[in-house]
Amino acid sequence: MFHERQNNGWLMVEKPHEDSQFKVLLLPGLHGSDLVFKRLMKSKVTENTGIHFIAANPPGFKGLDVPAGFDFKVESFAYLYEQMAAAENIGMLIGHSFSANVLIEVAARGNFKGKLVLISPSLYRSAEIRDLLTLDSLSRKPLVSGVTWRLTYMMMDKVFKPYFNTKSELSEAVTAGRMIPFETARKTLMGYFDHLDENGNLTEKIRKTRIPLWYVRGSLDDIRFTEKDKAGIMQSKFVHYEEIHGARHFAMIDRPDDVARVILNAVSD
Q: Would you give the distance in Å from CA 230 to the centre of its chain?
């Protein structure tokens, strides 16, 4: 049903599409892959709408190499995303978690002229879950970093289990996550938190964007997001806010049809 192809170091997964009118690039969070978008891509909500979904595994994900000299900064990932969007003639970028944070940087840079959908980014360090904060802290201590990451990979099935609804989905997600070398995962994580620390709070970057942007989160999401945060991003007329009732951090897994409706509305807006 799905077709895989390579493009400049990326692994792209898509359904054959004869009547492609609008291309959407789906980008995963930390240790994620194209697999987290399977349910969304199968949703009947967007069938026969001309929307062509491409689930992407960027460099550094699913065991893919990163470019020589890559520094793992969020800004560098933003550049890669912009380059691929141009190469694939993408009209909308959709990022989950880490990639949603990368898309905030894309929005701030203003090079991409399409639409953006952010699914559950973190606007500041303390918005993140405790386990990830601890992992970042231990990753910066040379004496324990290696052991910490080995243990993290051994326990990945337990970490992922709350977010996946079937054993097969969980198994596929863990297998894909473990394909990433420890050092690649560590540097990506630290680059992510370095970006949060450098910016303090990303609300202002979202508020200043001149690119149509949809901010999506599950009502049961464990990423902190306050009414003050919401009021801050909603100061921009370019920002739309959508809460998916009953969805957790992986809203596109819990409520794929609801997320698909948001995307359809965003495309036609």
A: 19
Distance CA 243, CA 233 (A): 14
pLDDT at 156: 95
Among 25, 95, 116, 11, residue whose Cα is nearest residue 61: 11
**Check whether domain 3-268 has CATH 3.90.1150.10, yes or no:** no
* pLDDT over threshold 80, residue 17: no
pLDDT at 5: 96
**What are the extents of the domains in the chain?**
3-268
pTM, rounded to two decimals: 0.97
Residue 149 CB partners (closer than 8 Å, separation 6+): 139, 182, 185, 186
**Residue 194: strand, helix, or coil:** helix
Rounded to whole angstroms, the Cα distance separating 217 from 182 reads 29
Q: Is the dihedral of CA 145, 146, 148, 149 positive or negative?
A: positive
Q: How far apart are CA 243 and CA 241, in angstroms?
A: 7
Residue range 50-65, pLDDT digits in tens: 999 999 999 999 999 9
Residues in Cβ contact with 178 at an 8 Å cutoff, skipping those fewer than 6 apart: 153, 156
For residue 92, the cross-strand partners are 24, 115
Please give the biggest Cα pair distance in the chain.
Answer: 55
| Per-residue model confidence (pLDDT) at position 20 | 75
